[in-house]
Write a structure and sequence with these properties.
Blueprint lengths: L1 H16 L5 E4 L4 E4 L1 H7 L3 H4 L10 H12 L10 E7 L5 E10 L6 E7 L7 H4 L2 H9 L3 E6 L4 E4 L1 H7 L3 H4 L14 H12 L4 E8 L5 E12 L5 E11 L1 H22 L3 E6 L4 E4 L1 H6 L11 H5 L4 H16 L5 E8 L5 E12 L5 E10 L1 H15 L9 H17 L6 E8 L1 H8 L1 H17 L6 E6 L2 E6 L5 H14 L4 E3 L2 E3 L2 E8 L7 H17 L5 E3 L2 H23 L2 E10 L5 E12 L3 E3 L1 H11 L2 H20 L9 E5 L2 H4 L4 H12 L6 E6 H6 L1 H13 L3 E7 L6 H4 L6 E4 L1 H5 L5 H16 L3 E5 L4 H9 L4 E3 L9 H8 L6
Helix pairs in contact: 16-17, 20-21, 22-24
């Protein structure tokens, strides 16, 4: 099949190009192809012979003999079938022809017919090359047949006549002897790409005759395939061209290419005659602006006045620079008015043609629509400078504008501005309880609400998470900044409606003023952040203005963090223990384990100063593990001093960071196994804020701890947002009443009722109660009347070292 297709294509090309009268006819009398010489000889045109039209002009008897000849036209020693045919001419006269019939060896149902009015020569040399060579011998075009390696096997007389080489000189040689080296590299690439992919090559090729004369030929080279599809030969046909014909052909091809380029190019083309001051615009150029062929004149002004006013000056300057010869080419991106009234972005390129003196007399180029690219670039730039969730400026854009504000303040006397750093209070609670989708909606609505508080020149940006910053431009005094912070706080008092829920939130706001004399945007943002943390430490919905003392405090805190990391590496800590006493019999029932930091130069640092820092930095995890290990080991040792019922227990505070550690359950289980401690004598204290902030996760972890028989207590109850009814979901054993309620239990009747309610509800939920901060006998008596079971505080004992705690166990408090 591959061989048949390859030779068929070559034969058809050969028939059409041959100066001899040739046609290809099928067994059923349908004409496949006929060249112009054939049609002229028999006096017909292509339309008349199309299909079976030829049979209408050939005498019926002769047509029958022709079909019979084709049915049996196998080559024999006697040569090819030749028969006489009468073809109808004008005035119903018959013209006589001799017709040579050649069956194509690759196609059993097709024949080449060759009508002539003189005898066909025959001879052994011609017959020795088979039927195809007989046709090639008579062709006026050069024919070359090579094997797959490119070795010449056959050339026809036309080749000998045009090149000056004899057949004997070239058989066994390569076509390279024609020295085609003057052709451009791209022609050779096209040649080898076509043949290596099994395609036919067409092109104009420059070669050399035997005497060295350059000649041009219009060449067609086709591969020939065997039955398996492998290439066996190459067939080349070529028509020699004179230099003038070649030049004319190249000019025609060039004009065709230009016309096709102008018509089919996606770019618009333009050609400016600078002497006549007239511009040719291609149809595509006009269509790009929504115009028709006749919509624009040839005046360059019709082009230039459509350019956007903001782009005209740069366009003209770039154009004039090129016309003067200052630039090698012209290129400019600009907006140009479309017929629909909108501007589109165009990239215009051009090159001037100059005379002998270097003066431009013509300029031509192209116009490319780059609107989509520009829109994409603007989108990318916007995305790079804006927060994807809220659409607000991001850190990069905010810092750029803040840098500009600092530069203005340095140039303009009296110019002042402020930066407000906002952090949402309890945003994590919203995220954990209602989900991240609702949390994101809250951030979006927060952005909108902040934007409504701004003046046009101000900027609000989202730094990430629940952190926002505001740049207040051109303020008069610091009071302007604090008033704006108050306006934000008032704006946040109204609830946010999210997914059918009303959600309340507030913000801690830190303020940094330009009056401090900043040179770097990062320093100003840092100080606003420091002020925000000061505001957060003062309570919810507060604001604070940065001062130098805050910076000193922040630096001291940074130094403390460094020292704390060293302390964790060396474990420069010690444990103290405060007894927990039964209010009924004043017997010690347990201890609360408390940590102290022994600083080598600063002495003891209280937990209130370093525990929050440890939680913020994550150092609470290794510190908390150490506390648990020391507490369990110490409790096991004390339990060995004397047996009691119920057994002595140890309360250990567990931070929210520790509770979130997936390894916590496994670590405690290993610790109980190592120390041999009964889990029922270990009580872990968790603040109600930790449970509220991590509701579902806390519930899962507490259930796993409860499964190990570990006791659980809620510490500092009453200071958070939970209620007893809310806590009934959790497996809590003990409620610890915060010392702030105990301190006023004898002086404030309302406070007394609060404690009474806590104790009553705890008992109803099968929980016992520990009162913290018991310091007087009056407080003890009140708590006993409320049926509070346990207490701890200075009235019984301060937190003491291990030896002092052992002494208490053996004293009157031991029962």
């Amino acid at each position: 099949m591959g061989l048949r297709k390859g030779i068929a294509k070559s034969i058809h090309a050969f028939v059409e190009a041959s100066p001899d009268p040739l046609a290809v006819l099928r067994d059923d009398g349908v004409l496949e192809v006929a060249n112009r010489t054939f049609l002229a000889l028999i006096g017909m045109n292509a339309k008349e012979v199309r299909g079976s039209g030829l049979s209408q002009r050939v005498h019926a008897e002769d047509w029958s003999r022709l079909l019979e000849a084709m049915a049996g036209s196998e080559e024999s020693a006697g040569g090819l079938p030749v028969l006489s045919c009468r073809v109808a001419g004008e005035g119903e006269t018959w013209r006589d022809f001799q017709v040579l019939v050649l069956r194509l060896p690759f196609e059993s149902h097709a024949h080449v017919i060759f009508p002539y009015q003189s005898r066909v020569p025959s001879g052994g040399a011609l017959a020795s090359h088979g039927p195809f060579a007989r046709i090639a011998e008579q062709s006026g075009e050069m024919v070359i047949i090579t094997d797959r390696a490119g070795t010449i096997l056959y050339v026809n007389p036309a080749f000998e006549r045009i090149t000056g080489y004899s057949r004997e000189e070239v058989i066994g040689q390569s076509p390279g002897l024609l020295k085609p080296g003057q052709n451009p590299p791209e022609l050779f690439r096209a040649f080898w790409q076509a043949l290596s992919s099994g395609q036919t090559f067409h092109g104009m090729v420059a070669c050399h005759k035997k005497d060295g004369t350059l000649y041009y030929e219009e060449k067609t080279v086709s591969p020939v395939f065997d039955g398996s599809g492998a290439v066996t030969h190459f067939v080349s046909t070529g028509k020699g061209l004179s230099e003038r014909m070649r030049a004319e052909e190249e000019l025609r091809a060039s004009e065709e290419r230009y016309a096709l380029a102008a018509e089919g190019a996606n770019d618009g083309l333009w050609d400016w005659d600078l002497r006549m001051d007239r511009v040719f615009y291609s149809p595509r150029w006009k269509a790009m602006l929504g115009g028709e062929e006749e919509d624009m004149s040839n005046s360059p002004e019709d082009w230039l006045h459509r350019i956007h006013p903001d782009d005209q000056l740069a366009f003209k300057a770039r154009l004039e620079a090129h016309l003067r010869g200052d630039t090698p080419h012209f290129e400019h991106e600009h907006r140009i008015l479309h017929r629909d009234g909108r501007y589109r972005w165009m990239l215009t390129r051009g090159l001037a043609v100059r005379d002998g003196e270097g003066k431009a007399y013509r300029m031509a180029g192209s116009q490319t629509d780059i609107t989509e690219r520009k829109v994409a670039e603007e989108r990318l730039l916007f995305d790079a400078m804006h927060d994807t969730l809220t659409g607000l400026p991001n850190r990069a854009l905010f810092m750029d504008r803040l840098g500009q504000a600092i530069a203005r303040a340095q140039r303009r006397e009296g110019y002042a501005f402020a930066v407000l750093f906002l952090d949402l209070d309890r945003f994590k609670v919203v995220n954990d309880s209602l989900g991240h989708m609702v949390g994101d909606r809250l951030l979006v609505e927060m952005a909108r609400r902040l934007a409504t508080c701004l003046r046009p020149a101000d900027t609000v940006a989202r730094l990430g998470g629940d952190e926002f910053v505001v740049l207040l431009e051109d303020i008069r005094t610091a009071t302007d900044a604090t008033l704006f912070a108050d306006r934000i706080q008032k704006g946040l008092k109204a609830p946010f409606s999210l997914e059918g829920r009303e959600v309340y939130t507030a913000a801690s706001i830190g303020i940094a003023l330009s009056a401090t004399g900043y040179e770097h945007a990062e320093d100003l943002l840092r100080d606003a952040d420091i002020a925000m943390y000061r505001a957060k430490s003062m309570g919810k919905a507060r604001s604070a203005v940065f001062d130098r003392a805050m910076h000193s405090s922040a630096m001291a805190l940074l130094e403390l963090e460094t020292e704390l990391r060293r302390a964790v590496e060396r474990m420069d800590f010690r444990m103290v223990y405060q007894p927990i006493v039964s209010l009924e019999n004043r017997r010690i029932v347990g201890f609360e384990a408390l940590i102290r930091w022994q600083h080598p130069t600063k002495g003891d640092i209280p937990p209130t100063k370093f525990i929050p820092l440890a939680e913020e930095t994550g150092l609470i995890v290794p510190v908390g593990q150490w506390i648990l290990r020391e507490s369990c080991r110490q409790l096991r040792a004390w339990q060995g001093l004397a047996r009691r019922s119920p057994p002595l227990y140890m309360s250990v505070n567990l931070s929210g960071i520790q509770l979130l550690q997936p390894e916590l359950i496994m670590q405690i289980d290993l610790l109980l196994r190592e120390t041999g401690l009964d889990g029922r004598t270990l009580k872990l204290e968790i603040t109600e804020s930790v449970i509220m902030e991590h509701a579902q996760y806390a519930l899962d972890m507490l259930k796993q701890l409860k499964a190990q028989n570990i006791k659980l207590a809620i510490d500092d109850f009453g200071t958070g947002y939970s209620s007893m009814s809310y806590l009934r979901r959790y497996p809590i054993d003990t409620v610890k009443v915060d010392q702030s309620f105990v301190a006023r239990i004898t002086s404030d009747e309302e406070n007394l009722e609060i404690v009474r309610s806590i104790v009553t509800m705890a008992h109803n939920l099968k929980m016992d109660v520990v009162a913290e901060g018991v310091e007087t006998k009056g407080q003890l008596d009140k708590l006993r009347t409320l049926s509070c079971e346990y207490g701890q505080g200075y009235y019984f004992s301060r937190p003491v070292e291990r030896d002092a705690a052992e002494a208490l166990l053996l004293s009157k408090w031991s029962g």
